[in-house]
Write a structure and sequence with these properties.
Layout (H helix, E strand, L loop, with lengths): L14 E2 L5 H16 L2 H4 L3 H18 L2 E2 L2 H16 L5 H5 L3 E7 L4 E5 L2 E4 L7 H12 L12 E5 L5 E5 L9 E5 L8 H6 L5 H12 L4 E5 L5 H9 L8 E5 L11 E5 L13 H8 L6 E4 L6 H10 L6 E5 L3 H14 L6 H11 L2 E7 L5 E13 L2 E9 L21
Parallel strand pairs: 1-2, 9-13, 9-14, 10-11, 10-12, 12-13
Antiparallel strand pairs: 3-4, 3-8, 4-5, 6-7, 7-8, 14-15, 15-16
Helix pairs in contact: 1-4, 3-4, 10-11, 11-13, 12-13
């Protein structure tokens, strides 16, 4: 290939390249990527040398099409092509931004990110549905996962721990939709949650002491409120000598303890076989001599086995659940116990829950995107068949004397 020197300005006999035209840019990308994918030697070159060759090829393409572009635009186009070739295209800059926690794609032209707890429009676009699909399939290829008409939904974990969910037409009516929850390498600490006004310092001290004293804890909250973050922080307080088994759909917990067994569920293959559910893993964990079990999220029939584990010596176990309030989380647990085909009465279900749990922590996110502990309730027992709760903390109100709490339950007061 002949390498041409980059021009300082658009030549009079060549029109400016229509770099705002998605069709033109799409043709340029496709032509260069097809050519570069055939040149395997290029992929082994140093990044600087690779960029120089791509820039030369872009100038050659522009010349043959009767166009020209200033050096800075050629460099920008080269970066886009390299991202398409060896990276994740327009997503590269978003994945590299540590301030972004979620990337949400509603078709090729609508990309949003969550930054600081608030959603905003991202300054990137895909050329078309095919372009978006190529990027997503490149993400999934090393994982051995498919995304096509026969398998139009996929949920996977990337090598860095980030989670990606994708759904395509005909299920998604407006084009491929992709959700990426980025994995945070530098997990927040208890001190940072206090500094960010997410948890008052006296309450954080109380919650950490509850973990050490092996209280069974349920963390409740809506999507993106910080349930897993708080679970991570509290789990860091578990004494080093205890054996902990974690069970998650996508491994996110980063416990500091050395004696941790990490288990992850597995989806069924394309033939509908090989699924390993959270309930399978909870049952298996009981044979692994755990001191504590941490279930990343309670969402189905595994709840009954988790509650039974809490009731049979695995004190200090923890889980999270999606719910709008601490009291609503009990309704969610009751519903999930029923999903397990449990045949007992409602009163018995409530007694199982009440004997298992010591505390419910509700985490919320306000309209400004600020995440915080909204309330903490103690599970005190059962009265007339209903679970009784006692408030320990409510945001905006003075903290009670947390050291004076009586943890002895009164499971059946009256009938």
């Amino acid at each position: 290939m002949v390498f041409r020197s980059r021009r300082r300005e658009v030549e009079p006999d060549r029109s400016p390249a229509p770099t705002d035209d998605p069709e033109f840019i799409g043709k340029l990308h496709r032509a260069l990527i097809d050519r570069l994918e055939d040149d395997q030697a290029l992929l082994g070159e140093a990044p600087t040398r690779m960029r120089q060759r791509v820039e030369a090829m872009i100038e050659e393409y522009l010349t043959l099409s009767g166009h020209a572009a200033p050096p800075e635009k050629v460099a920008s186009l080269a970066g886009e092509v390299l991202n398409e070739l060896v990276g994740y295209g327009p997503l590269e800059s978003l994945l590299a931004d540590p301030a972004i926690s979620d990337i949400l794609i509603n078709g090729p032209q609508h990309v949003f990110v969550e930054r600081g707890g608030l959603l905003e429009t991202a300054p990137v676009r895909f050329l078309n549905d095919g372009h978006l699909l190529r990027v997503v399939r490149r993400m999934l290829a090393p994982l051995g996962r498919r995304l096509d008409e026969s398998s139009p939904m996929v949920d996977a974990r990337l090598p860095d721990g980030s989670r990606v969910n994708a759904i395509i037409p005909p299920l998604a009516l407006d084009g491929p939709c992709v959700s990426i929850r980025k994995f945070r390498q530098d997990t927040l600490t208890a001190e940072e949650l206090v500094r960010l006004d997410s948890v008052p310092e006296p309450l954080m001290t109380f919650l950490q002491r509850a973990v050490v004293e092996r209280r069974n804890i349920l963390i409740s909250g809506g999507t993106g409120t910080g349930k897993t973050t708080l679970l991570n922080v509290l789990s860091a307080t578990i004494p080093q000598g205890e054996r902990v088994v974690t069970i998650e759909d996508s491994a996110e917990l980063q416990l500091g303890s050395q004696h941790v067994v990490r288990l992850e569920t597995r989806a069924a293959n394309t033939e509908g076989e090989g699924e390993i559910t959270a309930r399978h893993l909870v049952k298996n964990s009981l044979r692994m001599r755990p001191d504590r079990i941490i279930l990343g999220e309670s969402r189905g029939d595994e709840v009954l086995d988790m509650l039974q584990a809490m009731n049979t010596g695995h004190l200090g176990s923890m889980s999270t659940v999606h719910a709008n309030s601490a009291r609503d989380s009990l309704v969610r647990l009751q519903m999930m116990v029923r999903l397990s085909n449990f045949q007992g009465t409602d009163a018995l279900v409530n007694q199982i829950i009440a004997t298992a749990l010591d505390m419910i922590i509700q985490v919320d996110r306000d309209t400004r995107g600020h995440r915080h502990v909204g309330e903490v309730l103690q599970v005190t027992g059962v009265r007339q068949g209903a679970i009784t709760l006692a408030p320990l903390y409510r945001r905006g109100k003075a903290l009670p004397d947390l050291d004076a709490i009586d943890w002895n339950k009164h499971l059946q007061e009256g009938t």
